[in-house]
Amino acid sequence: MVLKTEDRTINPTPDLSTPLASPEAQESVLKIWGQQSLSGHVSVNGAKNAALPILAGALLCSGECLLHNIPALVDVRRMGEVLAALGVQVKCGPHSVMVNARDLNESHAPYELVSQLRASFFVIGPILARLGVARVPLPGGCAIGARPVDLHVRGLQKMGAEVHIDHGIVHAQVRGRNRRLKGANIYLDYPSVGATETLLMAATLAEGETTIGNAAQEPEVVDLANFCRSMGARIYGAGTNTITIVGVSQLHSTEYAIIPDRVEAGTLLIAGAITRSAIQISPVMPEHLTAVIAKLREMGVQVTPEGDRGLRVAPGYDLQATDVETLPYPGFPTDMQAPMMALLTLAKGDSVITETVFENRMRHVAELNRLGADIRAKGNHAIVRGVPFLSGAPVLATDLRASAALVLAGLAAEGVTTIRGLYHLDRGYAHLDQKLQNLGARIQRTTIPADPTVAIEEPAPLPSVPA
Ligand code: EPZ
Predict the structure, then answer these.
(1) CB 71 within 8 A of CB 48
(2) What is the distance in A from the centroid of ligand 1 to the CA of 304?
């Protein structure tokens, strides 16, 4: 039984099916003393959403791949664990990873690891391409949506894989004498980033030519294609909506540096804008942020090139409201929707935000409203009425980009903001609090007694990836 009061639902009886934090448990939180102006330069890490598929893509190689500019993220460590569980040699450096998949022999990715990292489903294409058989647990949904993989599966079936799902495991195998995938003409109902990446990887070792129509055009897809080409893959048209791959028999060793993280870069630009500060960020590829920069400029924020691979953000006269609709690339990126909403809460006027990519990516609205924002969300639309100021409060992060939005709002709020659920932040941003502190923010990672009435989402600490 749940009580409805105002627009929030309060459940009087906590769900006892999930473990509650024991009274003596501690949890890590971020404390932010807001309204500090920032200054200086901040570095941008390698892209999480390029690193994850490229690590999976290293399974295609019959030799050693040395990857550079790899971000130190929880998700990257988890992907390393998955590769190691497949019998692959993985060695991690500070910002590099060496993968040697010569002896890839295990076709089954373990549930206990895949269940902790949705992106590990990316291994299905390379395993199937190398071994002709793959068993990968179905990735669950997450806070932002159901995250189905039907487009991945249907594409693999068109390439000759027999696929069935049994007890939550995707079983795929290629029959025939050489158990090799066949090239196919595939059209994606939706320009899915993950499906494009899975099928592009599978096609590199298939027999014949594959065409992917309505393909995703994200920079991370292009980075994956460039990585595969550096191993000798024959891929044409990455970055357009039609990608052609001519299969080869084997891929050779390579050394490759991944692109900078455009979502971290956009988040840092907003950190400057929301505190009305002038800061510089690099390295960044401005062409990967065209939609975000256009929106910031519409709001009156100054964004200008700085050096050969940098940007400078500085405040304009004041922040003007604007409308945002998330779309597949080159449209406004869904991963920047929550950070941009944080900025729009302080703009003059009303902004309408429409989320078209994921079905449940408005969970940060309630927490931003706790900080004094005036946002009304209905389905995938949110009306953000600008307020003159935000005020600090305890808030709870619900997903990765929502946690970034709360950090940004806390930087601007009067007083102290305490953010719980840091597990989400650490999945996608390496040392964001440290970076902001170095720019002058008063932000501190500390521990507080865990609230015994709320289940803690913190996962068990990972065993370290063998060096
Ligand atoms: C990638 O997720 C990114 N993750 C996401 O970043 C990003 O938001 C998303 O692309 C869109 O840009 C990684 O690269 C690891 P999709 P992905 O397949 O591949 C539907 C972050 O915060 N769909 O393009 O899962 C799906 O439900 C994360 O860094 C199907 O219906 O995104 C969604 O509504 C979040 N069937 C839409 O397509 C499928 O088989 C877009 O999903 C596949 C997807």
Answers:
(1) yes
(2) 30
